[in-house]
Structures are given as structure tokens and as C-alpha cells.
Amino acid sequence: MVFWQPRSVLQLVLVGFFAALAPLCVAIVFSVQALEELAASDREVTRRVMEATRMGQEIQGEALEMERHARQYLALSDPELATLFEREREALGEKLFGLQARVAQPSKDLVALLQALRMVDLAGARALATEDGDLGRAVAQLDQSFAAVTEHRRGVQQWLTSSVDQLLAENAAEAGSIVDRLMLQLSFLVVTTLALLISFSYWINRPVRDLTEEIHRLGTAGLTHTIEIAGPKEMAALGEKLEWLRQRLHDADQQKAQFLRHISHELKTPLSSLREGTDLLAEQVTGRLSQQQQSVVDIVRRNAIELQCLIESLLDYNQLPGQQLNIEEFDLSELWWELLDNYRISIEQKSLRLESHVTVDSWVADRGKLKTALDNLLSNAVNYTPEGGSIDIAWHGDGDSLVIEVSNSGSPIPAGDSERVFEPFFQSIATRSGPIKGSGIGLSVARESIEAQGGSLTLVSHLRFPVCFRLLCPAH
Length: 476
Description:
The structure is a single chain. By secondary structure, the chain is an alpha+beta fold. The chain folds into 3 domains: 9-199, Four Helix Bundle (Hemerythrin (Met), subunit A) (Up-down Bundle), CATH 1.20.120; 222-319, Helix Hairpins (Orthogonal Bundle), CATH 1.10.287.130; 324-474, Histidine kinase-like ATPase, C-terminal domain (Heat Shock Protein 90). It is built from 10 helices and 7 strands.
């Protein structure tokens, strides 16, 4: 069932172009979305890394600042320094919690650092220095407290570095996943685009190919099959015109065949009576003729023979396309003598020297068509060879082919006529010396007869003779 029929080839090409372009547009949209997603992920990770790094640096700096203020308070006993220390400790605790939230990875050193900061007893160290008057013991106690802070602060720094590395690794893995997904989508879209291109290319080329095949079938398979072209409406219309032309040609061919059948019947009947009458007169059955009367009878008889040969050549040429092959094994010598008997009188009248070289005894092919081809070649050689000339017939096998070369003396065929001599009704400018004027279809009949069984007939060069026709007949 056809859901859509394009109006023209142009419409089909445009539809195919936009259909193939659609997956590419989808691929562009997917690529842009993937790039935006990748860029957003990079921005987020970069922001978190920068914030974590900045907060880590601030925590390190503020921890050192707290230690410096604690020692200053222990030495100066300034209450404002103690107040500043407490504020810095609270702010540092909040930053530690904020760092924990941004990195989103638990750390034992971070909790331990918070506990170590809470364990710093600045008031106790100051009281110890005031009661005993020994500032060294107070400093030692404070050093011990900040030693734990320093140790855990270094652990927090290492944790922060590993956390940042992990964030970057996760971002790289996510980017790789996005790229892999994008490549999978693009591969699918590329395959879809190729499939659409192949489908529309086939759809576009199919009616053109069908049209080409139908035209070729018209020239090779005959005019009996119906032509149907599917596809765009303009191609279908062209197929209908071609079908109309086929019908016209078929009707003309039928009329030609009918005409030839009628004309052959109408001409051969009175011609037979004419031939019979002239033969009786020539044989002087009805009475003795004078020399002048005998000359007139010979002229009539010769022209009757010429007319009969022309009619038979035309009939043979018309019947060739419809004839079927009749493959059989036959004796080549017997075939050769049958052909030679038909031209023995002409050969003797022109004093021709005929040589034959037969090296093959039998062959398997269509005997009738091979005989027709050889008959026309021998007739052509006898008629175009001047008086006292020579004709050479060579038969030999070449693998699966029978090679027959028919050569004769006389005027060579001009180079420009080497292929045209096989065209129907074409006659070369070479001089014909036979008693009957040719129709120009003898070589055409010979070529079609041998090509009908897969052989060939060509004009080739020869070492001794100016004219040589080579016939190749394959074995069946």
C-alpha cells in the first residue's frame, strides 16, 4: 500500500534531502546540550574546588592567627586579646563546618581539629602563670595544646587535597560518560542518516533504472511486454508515454510482418509461374528459338532469378528475430558441399579459384542459421571477386569455437565501411561483378544468424587477400 506518491523527482529529492538533514539537526541539538551539560558540570566543580581551596587557606591562616593571639594574651594579659581569640575560635569552627558541607566528604581530622581547638584553655594557662608566677609552664601547656591543633590542621590540609583530587576525578569521569553518551547518540544518528540516504537514493534511482531497463528491453527483448514505471508521477507519465510508443511500434511491426507475408505470397505465386515458363522456353520445350529470342528469354530468366533472390533475402531478414535455435550435431563437410553446389555454375562462369581447408569434421550448433550465414558470406565472395580471382575458405577449431574465414581477392572494403557493411541495406562502394544486383542485407543476415547462437562475424585483415570475413560459432 502506497501512503505517499511524490509528484515529481524534484519533490522526491527535496523530501529526501530534508529527511536526511533531520538526524543531523538532531545530532547538533544533542551535541549542544551535551556541551552545555559538560560546561555546567565543569563550572560547578571549579567553583567548589576554588571555594574549598580558599576556605582551606583561610582556615590555615586563622589557625595560625589564633595561636599568635593566644601567645600574645599569655604574655600581655590583655582581655581584648582573649575576647578576639574566642571570636576567632567560633568563626574557625563555622568555617570548618562550611568546608565539610562544600566538600561533602567526612574527615576524622576535621572533627579532631574542632576538638583540639575546643581543648585550648587560654584562661587556665593564664591562671597557671599568675598563681605560680612561672610563665614557662603556662607556655609549655599552651604549646602542647597547639601542637595537637597543628597536627590535625596538617591532616585537614591533606584531606582537603585528596578531596579536591577526588572531585576532579569524578568530574572527569562524568565528562567521559557524557562524551560516551554523545558518541552513541551521534553514531545512531549517523547510521539513521546513511539509511535514509540509501533509501531515498534507491527510491530516486529506481524509476530511472526501470526506465533504462525498459528501453533496453525494447531494443533487445522485443515489443511484446507491457511497460510499467512506478515512482514519481512525472516518471509514471513518462512510462505511460513509453508504453504508448511500444504499442505503436508493436502495431507497426505486426503490420510489417503481415505486409511481408502478403507480399511474399502475392509475388512468389506469379514469380513461380514466370520462372517455370522461362525455364521451359530456355530448354526449348515449346519449340526451337532463334538466337535473338533466346537472348530475350535469358534476360527474362536472369531477372526472374534476381527478383526471387531479393524476395527470399527480405523474407529471411524479417524472420530472423522470431526464430528459435535448433541445436544439433551435423557434418561440416556435408554442409560445405551443399553450399558449394549452389554456386558451382557462377564459379565456373567467372573462372574463380576456390580453395577450402576443413580441419573439423562435425559441430554442435544451429545448422540452419550457420548455413544461412555461410551462404551469404560465400555469395558475397563470389559476387565481389573479379573474373579469374581467388576465394579461400578456412575451417578450424579454436577451443570451444568454430572459426571460419572467408577470404577473396578483388577491391578492398574501405576502412570507413568496415562496420557499416553489416548494416541492413548498406552497400559498399566496392565493385560487384555478380549477375544479380545485391539488396544490401546479406551480411546483416549473416551476422544476425551467427549472433543468434552466441557467435560473431567481423571483417579482419588477411596476409594474402584484401577482403576477409571471420565467423566464430560456439559449440552448444
